[in-house]
């Protein structure tokens, strides 16, 4: 598969290998909670040889009530905002990290289509990471068909954890160069990510 220079660095397989290698070197682990991705994030991680050393497991909580019962997302939060909300993604990441006893938790929630859900348009996605420094959430507005949106969500989830690991526990803001590279990759492999993106950590909004 061909792409623009540097595109390979943004493929899910490359990011998954980097994450698994880094976690292995540090003796750390990860668990994932998935909604719209339906197991794709877990599959990307276990595709890497040696992932069993760092991958604790996954909870695919597709139904809203399972986000509460399996991941501990507060019922009041789900009643107030529905399942597609940054605070829900954060609670899912924290819940899976706690319940599967992992160093880091990753979570995905959103609308892959073909129809809107929970009052949110297709392409609305929230991914979250939880680790020793605290939680981090990225809210995305993605373009493309159902599979493309789910693939892009996996890419961004792995990228969020990679950023946390590379920054020594602090999520760094994505610069213009990174955004451009992601959009060039998206134009070649998926649909381009539209401009709205918010990354939130400890009450700080980064754009």
Gist?
The chain is of the alpha/beta class and 207 residues long. The chain has seven helices and seven strands, in the order αβαβαααβββααββ. The longest helix is centred in the C-terminal third of the chain and has 21 residues.
Structurally, how many domains make up the residues? 1
Question: What's the pLDDT, averaged over the residues?
Answer: 83
Question: How much of the sequence is in beta strands?
Answer: 15-25%
What's the CATH topology label? Maf protein
Order of helices and strands: HEHEHHHEEEHHEE
Number of strands: 7
Number of H- or I-type helical stretches: 7
Shape: globular
Q: List low-confidence stretches.
A: 1-9, 169-197, 202-207
End-to-end distance = 31 Å
Q: Strand arrangement, largest sheet?
A: 2-1-3-4-5-6-7
Percent range of helical residues? 40-55%
Judging by the overall fold, what is the CATH architecture? Alpha-Beta Complex
Secondary-structure-derived class: alpha/beta
Main beta sheet strand tally, sense and closure: 7 strands, mixed
Radius of gyration: 16 Å
- Within CATH, the superfamily carries the name CinA-like
CATH class descriptor: Alpha Beta
Please explain how this structure is put together.
- The chain is α/β, with parallel strands linked by helices.
- It has one domain: Maf protein.
- Helices cover 41% and strands 23% of the residues.
- The chain is built from seven helices and seven strands, in the order αβαβαααβββααββ.
- The protein has a seven-stranded mixed beta sheet, sandwiched between helices.
- Helix 1 runs parallel beside helix 6.
- The longest helix is centred in the C-terminal third of the chain and has 21 residues.
- It starts with 11 loop residues before the first helix and ends with a strand.
- 45% of the residues are buried.
- The N terminus and C terminus are likely disordered.
